[in-house]
């Protein structure tokens, strides 16, 4: 077993302190993922958005006793952490990579490295499934393919593994050089050359050349030689290759692929023989991914019948883990991605991040981990369950049932139908239920049993994108500047409790809502962050105190009403809104004398912050006015602070202000629309990621004759014969009626289809002439390819309105990739 002393030999670096032999078992880079303090080494990494060194005190208090920190940390580490072993290195991320490369070098087994623009994760998952009969495979969990993800993936290598499959993704030159020595692939797969992540590269050729660096030492590289740039680059570097192609001579020549029902028949020529096989998919991307796998299996000399047998059992890879509301106030984490230990750990981490939602239940099938003896495997599962504080386990499957003695408060069923037969909804109330099952167990049936009825329209919220946007704004903040996030109006339509929970996890400093009820709902969902309420009415002051919410106070009358409700010996925090030109709410200088008088009479009231709001931060024409507002706010806030004689948080910038006036962050900023993916000044839109996708389904397809009309008031007139699709969204769902009659478009099967006729209450019709559409297809109302900014412009409004209009009857589904 690796010890801390040996770690020093590998990483070089300076030993600040070596306390006692520390085993190096778990590599920790995210303080929130701590589960086993003994044996964990925390690598404090200076990230783009966050600094791991901030979490040393917390981790030390939680029992971590081994740290790798960066030089330049000036604090007296020995005094602060007397019992910890500490190593100081120039760059902690590099050190982590170095350690992983060292670990990799201990194993002399074949390792497949996968890179390319798309399909990396799917090819990895499929190959691992296809080879599981012959090999003990270790692979990247999910799409852990980054500078940080790759070392953590490779760290999983254990002596009993016989094959490694790891993916590598890069977004700029220079990155692959770091990943190559960590993976040290002996075999390569280059999936394809697309346009994803082109931003970081000067040209596609450069991107290809950079990615090829992963394969500098491989014995064989698999790729499709129809990608001309790739073909050229591989030949130039004379890497030994196994090629497949639909157009030219190659090791594997694809004569034809034809769709037959739900399958694709592939006719190919290999070693002079023409053969045929069926792939259980029909879409282009899956066919390409499957052909890579076929090439690999042919090269391994598997008999044709065996290859067909294994291909038949391939399933689509569920790329994401979904969170949704379920019966009786339960919350479901649906993860049917795969069911090995690494995947289980990730899902349990996510569940553990929702402690406030109530009891945690895990519904788990047999774990399909090929690398461990059964007993050892379920001991590990039991340990994971325990460190993640899961209160109840429901095991489904013959194997897991054999090990029921390892679990407490657990029930076991031999199969999914058995469980469903015994299923009683009343047994589940206000809990977070993680459903994690291997494919063959068909846990989607369990998910269905737990789910509430879904009306065909959903708003999907991409939590990864939300975090990306949060971090983007955070990267603009000076150290020490606090971040308040506006989650008013149901978090701009996205779902308050879920978003607030994520913000709490990602350590926002403050939340703000418009009304007391919104704040109460957050508290009832376990949100403990300070919450400011912007428009509390006097009749809600009692509730404010009950739920520890902090009111915005904007007028003398309101302040009078508030202080008349105070109870002695209690402390109250308030936020003073100052009017500097918006002329909506707020105190003006003329109010100050009375304001100070009231505050002096009520010392139990503490002014937590003073703030004002910019009226035109989104538009450059108002820059002078914004500057005036900032100047007058600074003066007014200083006057207040002087009279109060204690420090008050001052803030004025909204999302647009953060981008436009970074020098006026003061003590805190208030992030709103930017979090949800809309950059209000328009100048940095590219840096944000769209967060929400509103989708619905096609209910019916119709053929309309020339001259006939569509919808109410006969507004949609068919100028020629048309095909229309009726989709299940109307103005009652928040789809604006101004989109009627060709103003709006929706995306169906990748094509833009204009509205025809007026938007109805629950439905509307679109012109799908020439587009392949059938009932049940998905129609996207807005999303990454049809942006809120564009839609808002079409009907003369702003993205804020479109987002917050999405009716609460539309179900919100949250997912992470
Ligand atoms: C809504 C709101 C914000 C956030 O505005 P965005 O333009 O969405 O960033 C900030 N401050 C106050 C007072 C608000 O009401």
Automatic annotation (TrEMBL):
<keyword id="KW-0132">Cell division</keyword>
<dbReference type="Pfam" id="PF08245">
    <property type="entry name" value="Mur_ligase_M"/>
</dbReference>
<feature type="active site" description="Proton acceptor; specific for L-alanine">
    <location>
        <position position="712"/>
    </location>
</feature>
<keyword id="KW-0133">Cell shape</keyword>
<dbReference type="InterPro" id="IPR029066">
    <property type="entry name" value="PLP-binding_barrel"/>
</dbReference>
<keyword id="KW-0663">Pyridoxal phosphate</keyword>
<dbReference type="Pfam" id="PF00842">
    <property type="entry name" value="Ala_racemase_C"/>
</dbReference>
<dbReference type="InterPro" id="IPR001608">
    <property type="entry name" value="Ala_racemase_N"/>
</dbReference>
<dbReference type="InterPro" id="IPR013221">
    <property type="entry name" value="Mur_ligase_cen"/>
</dbReference>
<dbReference type="InterPro" id="IPR036615">
    <property type="entry name" value="Mur_ligase_C_dom_sf"/>
</dbReference>
<feature type="binding site">
    <location>
        <position position="761"/>
    </location>
    <ligand>
        <name>substrate</name>
    </ligand>
</feature>
<dbReference type="Pfam" id="PF01168">
    <property type="entry name" value="Ala_racemase_N"/>
</dbReference>
<keyword id="KW-0067">ATP-binding</keyword>
<dbReference type="InterPro" id="IPR000713">
    <property type="entry name" value="Mur_ligase_N"/>
</dbReference>
<feature type="binding site">
    <location>
        <position position="584"/>
    </location>
    <ligand>
        <name>substrate</name>
    </ligand>
</feature>
<protein>
    <recommendedName>
        <fullName>Alanine racemase</fullName>
        <ecNumber>5.1.1.1</ecNumber>
    </recommendedName>
</protein>
<dbReference type="InterPro" id="IPR005863">
    <property type="entry name" value="UDP-N-AcMur_synth"/>
</dbReference>
<comment type="function">
    <text>Catalyzes the interconversion of L-alanine and D-alanine. May also act on other amino acids.</text>
</comment>
<keyword id="KW-0547">Nucleotide-binding</keyword>
<keyword id="KW-0413">Isomerase</keyword>
<dbReference type="InterPro" id="IPR051046">
    <property type="entry name" value="MurCDEF_CellWall_CoF430Synth"/>
</dbReference>
<dbReference type="InterPro" id="IPR011079">
    <property type="entry name" value="Ala_racemase_C"/>
</dbReference>
<keyword id="KW-0963">Cytoplasm</keyword>
<dbReference type="GO" id="GO:0016874">
    <property type="term" value="F:ligase activity"/>
</dbReference>
<feature type="modified residue" description="N6-(pyridoxal phosphate)lysine">
    <location>
        <position position="488"/>
    </location>
</feature>
<keyword id="KW-0961">Cell wall biogenesis/degradation</keyword>
<dbReference type="InterPro" id="IPR035911">
    <property type="entry name" value="MurE/MurF_N"/>
</dbReference>
<feature type="active site" description="Proton acceptor; specific for D-alanine">
    <location>
        <position position="488"/>
    </location>
</feature>
<comment type="similarity">
    <text>Belongs to the alanine racemase family.</text>
</comment>
<keyword id="KW-0436">Ligase</keyword>
<dbReference type="InterPro" id="IPR036565">
    <property type="entry name" value="Mur-like_cat_sf"/>
</dbReference>
<dbReference type="InterPro" id="IPR009006">
    <property type="entry name" value="Ala_racemase/Decarboxylase_C"/>
</dbReference>
<feature type="domain" description="Alanine racemase C-terminal">
    <location>
        <begin position="691"/>
        <end position="815"/>
    </location>
</feature>
<keyword id="KW-0573">Peptidoglycan synthesis</keyword>
<comment type="pathway">
    <text>Amino-acid biosynthesis; D-alanine biosynthesis; D-alanine from L-alanine: step 1/1.</text>
</comment>
<keyword id="KW-0131">Cell cycle</keyword>
<dbReference type="InterPro" id="IPR000821">
    <property type="entry name" value="Ala_racemase"/>
</dbReference>
<dbReference type="Pfam" id="PF01225">
    <property type="entry name" value="Mur_ligase"/>
</dbReference>
């Amino acid at each position: 077993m690796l010890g801390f002393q040996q770690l020093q030999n590998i990483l070089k670096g300076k030993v600040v302190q070596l306390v006692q032999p520390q085993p190096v078992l778990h590599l920790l880079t995210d303080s929130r993922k701590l589960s086993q303090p003994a044996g964990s080494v925390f690598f404090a990494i200076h990230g783009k958005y966050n600094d791991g060194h901030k979490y040393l005190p917390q981790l030390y208090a939680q029992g971590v006793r081994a740290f790798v920190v960066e030089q330049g940390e000036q604090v007296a580490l020995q005094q602060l952490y007397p019992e910890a072993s500490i190593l100081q290195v120039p760059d902690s991320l590099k050190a982590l990579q170095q350690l992983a490369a060292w670990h990799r070098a201990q194993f002399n087994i074949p390792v497949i490295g996968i890179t390319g623009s798309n399909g990396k994760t799917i090819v990895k998952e499929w190959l691992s499934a296809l080879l599981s009969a012959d090999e003990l495979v270790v692979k990247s969990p999910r799409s852990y393919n980054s500078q940080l993800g790759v070392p953590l993936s490779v760290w999983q290598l254990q002596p009993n593994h016989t094959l490694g499959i790891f993916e590598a993704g890069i977004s700029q030159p220079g990155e692959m050089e770091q990943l190559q020595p960590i993976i040290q692939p002996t075999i390569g797969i280059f999936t394809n050359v697309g346009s994803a992540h082109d931003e970081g590269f000067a040209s596609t050729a450069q991107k290809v050349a950079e990615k090829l660096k992963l394969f500098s030492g491989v014995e064989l590289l698999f790729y499709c030689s129809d990608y001309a740039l790739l073909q050229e680059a591989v030949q130039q570097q004379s890497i030994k290759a196994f090629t497949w192609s639909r157009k030219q001579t190659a090791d594997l020549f694809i004569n034809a692929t034809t769709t037959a029902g739900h399958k694709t028949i592939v006719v190919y020529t290999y070693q002079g023989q023409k053969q045929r096989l069926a792939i259980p998919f029909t879409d282009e991307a899956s066919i390409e991914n499957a052909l890579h796998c076929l090439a690999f299996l042919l090269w391994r000399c598997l008999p044709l019948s065996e290859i067909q047998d294994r291909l038949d059992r391939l399933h689509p890879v569920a790329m994401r883990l979904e969170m949704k509301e379920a019966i009786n106030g339960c919350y479901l984490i649906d993860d049917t991605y795969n069911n090995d230990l690494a995947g289980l750990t990730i899902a349990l981490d996510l569940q553990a991040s929702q402690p406030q939602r109530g009891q945690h239940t895990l519904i788990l099938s047999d774990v399909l981990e090929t690398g461990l003896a059964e007993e050892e495997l379920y001991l590990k599962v039991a340990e994971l369950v325990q460190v993640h504080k899961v209160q109840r386990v429901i095991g489904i499957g013959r194997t897991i049932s054999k090990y029921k003695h390892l679990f407490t408060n657990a029930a076991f069923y031999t199969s999914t139908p058995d469980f469903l037969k015994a299923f009683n909804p009343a047994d589940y109330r206000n809990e977070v239920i993680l459903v994690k099952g291997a494919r063959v167990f068909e846990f989607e049936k369990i998910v269905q049993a737990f789910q509430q009825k879904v009306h065909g329209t959903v708003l999907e919220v991409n939590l990864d994108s939300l975090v990306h946007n949060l971090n983007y704004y955070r990267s603009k903040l000076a150290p020490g500047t606090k971040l308040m996030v506006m989650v008013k109006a149901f978090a701009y339509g996205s779902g308050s409790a879920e978003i607030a929970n994520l913000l709490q996890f990602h350590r926002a400093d403050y939340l703000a809502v418009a009304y007391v009820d919104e704040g109460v709902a957050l508290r009832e969902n376990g949100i403990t962050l300070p919450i400011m309420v912007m428009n509390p009415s006097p009749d809600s002051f009692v509730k404010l105190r009950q739920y520890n919410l902090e009111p915005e106070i904007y007028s003398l009358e309101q302040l009078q009403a508030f202080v008349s409700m105070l109870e002695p010996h209690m402390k109250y925090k308030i936020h003073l809104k100052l009017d500097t030109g918006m002329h909506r709410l707020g105190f003006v200088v003329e109010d100050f004398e009375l304001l100070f008088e009231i505050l002096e009479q009520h010392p139990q009231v503490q002014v937590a912050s003073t703030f004002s709001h910019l009226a035109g931060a989104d538009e450059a024409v108002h820059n002078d006015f914004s500057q005036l507002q900032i100047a007058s706010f600074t003066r007014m806030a200083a006057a207040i602070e002087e009279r109060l004689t204690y420090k008050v948080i001052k803030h004025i910038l909204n999302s647009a202000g953060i981008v436009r006036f970074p020098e006026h962050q003061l003590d805190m900023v208030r992030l709103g629309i930017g979090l949800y993916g809309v950059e209000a000044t328009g100048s940095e839109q590219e840096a944000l990621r769209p967060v929400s996708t509103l989708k619905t389904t096609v209910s019916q397809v119709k053929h309309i004759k020339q001259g006939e009309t569509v919808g109410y008031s006969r507004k949609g007139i068919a100028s020629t014969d048309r095909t229309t699709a009726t989709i299940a969204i109307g103005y009652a769902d928040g789809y604006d009626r101004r989109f009627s009659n060709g103003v709006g478009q929706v995306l169906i099967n990748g094509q833009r289809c204009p509205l025809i006729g007026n938007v109805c209450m629950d439905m509307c019709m679109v012109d799908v002439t020439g587009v392949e559409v059938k009932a049940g297809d998905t129609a996207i109302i807005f999303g990454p390819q049809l942006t809120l900014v564009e839609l808002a412009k079409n009907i003369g409004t702003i993205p804020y309105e479109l987002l917050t209009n999405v009716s609460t009857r539309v179900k919100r589904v949250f997912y992470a990739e």
